Amino acid sequence: MAEEAAEALQAAVAVGAAATEPADRALAHFTLSLWPVGDRYRMLLALARRDLGMDRVAGILEPARVRATAIVEQGQRDGVFHTQLPAPVLSAGLEAMTVALLEEVNTGALEDDGTRVAVTTLIAAGVPEKRARIVVDEVTAAER
User: pLDDT tens-digit profile of 86-105?
Assistant: First the structure.
């Protein structure tokens, strides 16, 4: 199951990897692409650190971490995302928030198709809320 999850994650990362869009749109697209994978494998994710070990989990997540950090770096260079934290640290924080939100799905406290999480991710990266909502709406409409 871990191999299946790793393959699904790599496929989702590859979908957004070719995009040459502005960083806020790229992060929204990235989040919306990954959310269904995280949602599908959220129970595995909850057990993975204990059962697979941190090194194996890090290996599975590496492609997504590299892509997320690249998007954050681009956004910081372009003035779209805040620069209060270095890009790898901000990216790690966004990942941790996403994992925490997936855990809330496990408890039944959150239901989301990824759009609210994408808006929240953009806000956490430094995009004003109104702009974050517009970007996610545009990306969602373009994917349909």
Answer: 999 999 999 989 888 988 88
Confirm if 98 and 114 have CB atoms less than 8 A apart. Answer: no
Tokens of 2: 């871990």
Whether residue 67 contacts residue 12, with contact meaning beta carbons closer than 8 Å, is answered with: no
Q: Do 106 and 43 meet the contact criterion of CB atoms below 8 Å apart? A: yes
Q: Nearest 5°: CA angle at 7, between 62 and 117?
A: 65
115, with CB counted inside 10 A (0-12, 13-18, 19+), is middle
Give 80's DSSP letter: S
Q: What is residue 36's three-state secondary structure?
A: helix
DSSP structural state of residue 78 = T
Distance, in Å, from the CA atom of 79 to the CA atom of 83, rounded to the nearest integer, reads 8
Q: Is residue 117 within 8 Å of residue 91, measured between CB atoms?
A: no
pTM: 0.84
Residue 125: CB atoms within 10 A of its CB come to 25
Give dist(CA 24, CA 2) in Å, integer: 30
- Structure tokens that stand for 68 in this block: 């997320």
**How does residue 18 score in pLDDT terms, banded at 50, 70 and 90?**
very low
